[in-house]
Amino acid sequence: MKTIALVAHDNRKPDLIAWVKYNHDVLLGNRLVCTGTTGKKVKDALIDMGQSVSEQDNMVLLKSGPLGGDQQLGAMIANGDIDILIFLWDPMEPHPHDVDVKALLRISVLYNIPFACNKSTADFIISSALMDTDYEPEVKDYSSYTGRELS
Question: How many other CB atoms sit within 10 Å of the CB of residue 147?
């Protein structure tokens, strides 16, 4: 079982919901973590499909991204609690919490978790043979950064 984070900007929420519906069989065999509004839409879509979705068992809803959900998700990544990030963001729209978005993408790279910013990459990730295996991402040793002097 993997823990998969699902996030989408407003204009990309319909794309994520369509992707979730298409991949619901795989997704429901894993634990889902979603930021606020995205999570409500994902949960509603799965329930509308007749799927059982329990926040205690297989779905966690965080705060809305601009209200701290992005930071909550970043903390989960840093703690090793997220295996995969699917984040459909809108490259054509400015976002008031753009720094939060960049921080979330940065922390995903830092902790070497797979992340998708578009449906094609999400499809490749979710159909990977590694979905059904234990996989520990190799995380670079950044300890030399913690003791350096700033000039």
Answer: 6
> Which active-site residues does the annotation give?
70
Give the SS3 label for residue 103.
helix
Concatenated DSSP letters for 44-100? Answer: HHHHHTT----TTTTEEE---GGGTHHHHHHHHHHTT--SEEEEE--TTS--TTHHH
**C-alpha 141: how far from its chain's center?**
23
Cβ contacts of residue 26 below 8 Å, gap of 6+? 126, 131
Mean pLDDT of the chain: 88
Q: Is the pLDDT of residue 149 over 80?
A: no
Tell me which residue of 73, 20, 89, 77 sits closest to 51, measured CA to CA.
20
- 9-64: per-residue pLDDT in tens? 888 999 999 999 999 999 988 999 999 999 999 999 998 998 877 765 689 999 98
pLDDT: which is higher, 11 or 82? 82
Which tokens is 123 given? 């499809």
Domains recognised in the chain with CATH numbers: 3-129 (3.40.50.1380)
Fill in the amino acid letter for 4.
Answer: I
Residue 150 has a pLDDT of 54
